[in-house]
Amino acid sequence: MKEMEGDRFRMLMMKALDGELAGSEQSEFDNFLRSKECADEWARFHKVKEATMALKFSTPAPEVWDTYWTSVYH
Fold first, then answer.
1. Could you give the 3-state DSSP secondary structure of residue 61?
2. pLDDT digits 0-9 by tens, 2-15
3. Which residue has better confidence, 34 or 1?
């Protein structure tokens, strides 16, 4: 894949991950996905997004909050 094509694919891929592809861009993106190289990269990025969206922050124990405000620089 040429460098300019790769840049265009990655830009479209980021928009696709965010659900922001316009109709014509979706068709262009689908054409890129016919390439194994692009399809593999899309699959990897899609897995990363799924993993990061599944992350949850844990709630600190009350003891943490008891000492938090005393340690914050005023």
1. coil
2. 888 889 999 999 99
3. 34
CA distance 63 to 61: 5
Distance CA 13, CA 18 (A): 9
pLDDT interval class at 73 (50, 70, 90): low
**Cβ(33)–Cβ(42) below 8 Å:** yes
Q: Which helix (H) or strand (E) holds 74?
A: none
- CA neighbor of 42 nearest in space, from 21, 23, 57, 59: 21
Indicate the burial class of 45 (C-beta count within 10 angstroms; 0-12, 13-18, 19 or more).
Answer: middle
**Structure tokens belonging to residue 14:** 């980021």
